[in-house]
Amino acid sequence: MKTKFLVIIILFFALFLRVYGLDKNPPSLNWDEVSHGYNAYSILKTGKDEWGIKFPLIFRCFGDFKLPLYIYLTTLSVAVFGLSAFSVRLISILSGVGLTFLAYLITKKITKNEVFSLLSAFLTALTPWGLFLSRVAVEANLGAFLFALGVFFFLSWFEKNKQLDLSLAALFWGLSMFSYNSARILVPVFVLTMIFLVVKKNRKKQLIFPILISIIFFLLLGSQIFDKSAKARYDWVSLLDQGTINKIIDQRNNSKLPKILTKVLFNRVTYFSFYSVRNYLNNLSPQYLFFRGGSHYQFSQPGHELLFLVSAPFLLLGLIKIIKRGNLGEKILLFWFLLAFVPSAITKDAPHVLRSILILPSPMIISAIGLKWLTDFGLQNSLFKGKLIIFVFTLGVLTSFYKWWSDYLFIYPKAYSWAWQYGYEQVSSFIKANFQKYDKIILTKRYGEPHEFLLFYLKWNPKKYQNDLGKKWDYHANWYWVDSFDKFQFIDDWEVFDKVSKMQSQVPDDTWLSSKVLEKKWLLITSPGNYPEGWNKIKTINFLDEKPAFEILEK
Question: What is the pLDDT of residues 332-388, one digit of tens each?
């Protein structure tokens, strides 16, 4: 009873940390989050996404395609709470809390020890890697939860030998592949591992339903691999893009080495292998994991750890323990930990916090195993019977967390609001209050995808948007560009001065101006100082560091 109470306390604490101040930090929704939210809203209202496609299995989004499960689940939270930052981020919040609970369950299944299972959950609730991303609407967090849930049921099978556990493992692994792309690399390997171990235990009949479930998901996945969505994703993240291939060809042509050596050194396989190994090792760098974190401001707090430094020696001890004398469950845990870095290693921008998120919560579980191993030694060789080690570890975690949490609350939003496209909500509020006053509203594209923010914050009628005859868009440079809808016009920042000047001097541009429109009242929302003379500035919207983000003018 006491253990259940402590588990509930930890879960409530994990939930509190993930919802506290959510309306202020992260400082605003980014373009992916508003896209998730508006598409969920559109599905809820019309059964179609923003492009008018009925119940898609993949969602078109700017230069990428988003997997469907997070968006469909978000329709439920939007239905209950309305279209808001909370409803958009709720699935990620719950996934983070779910990972905390799974850390407890998996650790208990492996160690059979309540104390270290609670410590594993406690560490998962507080660790920056999971906590930061649980406060952002990232489908990767849902993918991590579903993948870990599959691992839990796989481990349960070793304990109970029930076919249901294998089927549930296959089901949740399959769902994770439609939550985040990294799972599409890990899941096939784990399914093959499952088949191998089940056959080895001479339980072949129990594979019928798990294999059938897996085949269904792989067939659905196969239908996407060869379409435009897969190519778009590959073009954005691949180590071997066209620029890299051209570089390899130049190196080969200009090489003065012997011909056979030139062929060996300068080819796609060698390049991919070298940089994949390098990237993989970078993911294991202590500097990356315990000191500096990632370089993407929306995925981790810059200059701060992903895992607490105090957990580093116990993580290392846990890895050593598993390698030396680990049971089958621990070896699967080690396999999970090592394999989870592969998606980041074989793509650009490694090490990448988000692409390796499926590792969670394995580092916390391994740290708990290392702590238990050291404590078991202390039971026989120390005055405090190992309890002092647990006390020091817990105190170290709390101290590290306090420093990270304080910086996250009071420094991060002010320093990095610009990275979150801050200001669009304030722009939308101004437009909503003054919409009827203007005949044409022009917005800069400087901060990216203004149309999506307007759709979200104005709660624009999805059916009206889908059927808007004034909507103009095109696809080029691997990106979907929306240039107008209704009375809104979106133009590149470097074009604002020129096009507004043409309007001011009554020089029509047939692509978007006409003599009739020139006589009407205009609103211009642009980057600071990016407008010609003669306009009346009525409002400035600043980032949280007080630097100007938008200037609003009328004429």
Answer: 999 999 999 999 999 888 899 999 999 999 999 999 999 999 888 766 666 566 688
Q: Are 35 and 47 in contact (CB under 8 A)?
A: no
Q: Which of 403, 293, 306, 405 is nearest to 364 (CA)?
A: 306
Residue 515 has pLDDT above 60, yes or no: no
Are 91 and 213 part of one and the same domain? yes
**What residues make up the domain containing 62?**
2-237+284-415
Which pair of tokens denotes residue 140?
Answer: 């990767």
Buried b (16+ CB within 10 A) or exposed e, 12-38: ebbbebbbeebeebbbbbbbbbbbbbb
Domain stop point among 393, 415, 437: 415
90 and 200 share one domain: yes
Query: What pLDDT was estimated at residue 495?
Result: 86
* Residue type, position 368, single letter: A
Q: What is d(CA 504, CA 126) in angstroms, rounded to the nearest whole number? A: 56
Q: What six digits make up the tokens of 210?
A: 């798990």
Q: Which residue carries 């009873």 as its tokens?
A: 1
**Which residue has better confidence, 231 or 51?**
51
Cis peptide before 361 (omega within 30 of 0): yes
Side-chain half-sphere exposure of 448, counting CA atoms within 13 A? 16
Tokens of 466: 């889908």
229 or 529, higher pLDDT: 529
Q: SS3 for 363?
A: helix
C-alpha distance from residue 227 to each of 216, 230, 439 (Å): 18, 6, 41
- Residues 107-151: tens digit of each pLDDT: 999 999 999 999 999 999 999 999 999 999 999 999 999 999 999
For residue 536, pLDDT over 70 is answered with yes
Write the DSSP symbol of residue 288. Answer: I
For tokens 């039971």, the residue is 379
Q: 396 and 524, same structural domain? A: no
Q: What is the pLDDT of residue 478?
A: 75
My answer on whether omega of the bond before 532 falls inside 30° of 0, hence cis, is no
CA separation, residue 343 to residues 353, 441, 474, 528 (Å): 11, 42, 31, 39
Query: How confident is the model over 419-431, as a mean pLDDT?
Result: 96
pTM: 0.92
Amino acid at 361: P
* Residue 462, helix vs strand vs coil: helix
Cα–Cα distance, 488 to 443 (Å, whole number): 7
Residue 269 burial by Cβ neighbours in a 10 Å radius (0-12, 13-18, 19+): exposed
CA distance 61 to 50: 10
- Token digits for 537? 């500035």
Point out the domain boundary residue: 415, 443, 463.
Answer: 415
